[in-house]
Design goal:
The chain contains twelve helices and 13 strands. With 322 residues, the chain is an alpha/beta fold. Pfam families: RraA-like.
């Protein structure tokens, strides 16, 4: 770096420093956004290298979301745990359509017990600075940002009575915008009406006829806790009757492919055990070269359609000692 020697250079440098300090002081004086900025979401999901939405969330492909539906909770959990993500599962749900899996890209919302001064700041910031709806409750704001393929995930801190985040009106709005449903660490009202929305699904902690009161929205698309799981905006969710897994976007393709291969291995192993070709200990331990060759021959003559492309499968098998 060149030295600053002349009086004019020193003056310009001083002015630049003052301007920077003033700018930082002003930015620190601004109220915290209700909705996270794209820059913040990108920082949270920095390991994702693919396409993004305008709000900064990773845009995981629809094809991967569809393949994810066929992955078991145990397989998904195992892949994440092996990668060091041990707090991505939550169970103990009431499920509207328990036999239907739901996958999608997460939009998060955080709710807290009502505090009037904070609620006022949230409403002022949301309406005046962020252009959010001035009428109705703030529990409609997360719905306004949904797009097709999104799943609305909210931490309602487990509140059931007076903690109903939506009824059938908001449920219809959610499904119209996302073609998905909700996952709430909280409750809903008018479950009978919600059940009449064709295709809408919900993982909730309870339902109650009361309406929401003494609680407030505090953030949209910030990190939240759902039971024992930490959830980020842009995560991909796998929700089944056996529980819910929140998957970091940068791991979802690897998770899907790894789980699909594990499923094929299990199918092959079960078939060979039924045939009596191998002993259980041979299948449950690291395979011999003969079993590996048998598995590859079995894959080449697979009677159905493989869940992945042949290129994906070949590349995967090249890099792993199975």
């Amino acid at each position: 770096m060149s030295k600053i020697t002349s009086p004019i250079q020193k003056l310009k440098f001083s002015i630049a420093i003052l301007a920077t300090a003033f700018s930082l002081g002003q930015s620190q004086g601004y109220a915290q956004n209700v909705g996270a900025s794209p820059e913040y979401i990108k920082a949270l999901t920095a390991e994702w290298t693919g396409e993004r939405f305008d709000d900064g969330r990773p845009k995981v492909s629809d094809a991967i979301l569809e393949r994810l539906k066929n992955i078991s909770i145990e397989e998904a959990w195992g892949v994440l745990r092996n990668r060091g993500y041990q707090n991505q599962y939550e169970g103990d749900w009431q499920i509207m359509l328990p036999d239907e899996a739901m996958t999608g890209r997460v939009v998060t919302a955080q709710y807290m017990p009502l505090r009037p001064d904070l609620e006022k700041q949230v409403k002022d910031q949301g309406v005046e600075k962020e252009g959010r709806a001035p009428t109705g409750g703030t529990n409609s704001w997360p719905i306004d940002v949904l797009t097709t393929g999104d799943v609305y995930v909210a931490d309602g801190y487990g509140k059931i009575v007076d903690g109903t985040l939506i009824g059938d009106n908001l449920g219809n709005a959610i499904f119209a915008k996302s073609q998905r449903g909700v996952i709430f660490n909280g409750s809903v009202r008018d479950q009978e009406g919600l059940s009449e929305i064709q295709g809408f699904n919900a993982w909730i902690k309870g339902q109650d006829p009361s309406y929401i009161q003494q609680m407030m929205l505090t953030s949209i698309n910030a990190p939240i806790r759902v039971g024992r799981a930490t959830v980020l905006p842009g995560d991909v969710v796998l929700a089944k009757k056996y529980g819910v897994i929140f998957i970091p976007a940068h791991l979802v393709e690897e998770l899907v492919l790894t789980s699909e291969v594990t499923g094929l291995r299990d199918e092959f192993g079960h078939q060979r055990l039924r045939e009596g070709k191998y002993l259980p200990g041979q299948i449950d331990s690291q395979w011999t070269e003969d079993i590996k060759k048998d598995f590859l021959d079995w894959l080449n003559n697979y009677p159905g359609q493989l869940p992945m492309t042949k290129e994906e499968l070949d590349n995967y098998l090249k890099e792993r000692n199975y």
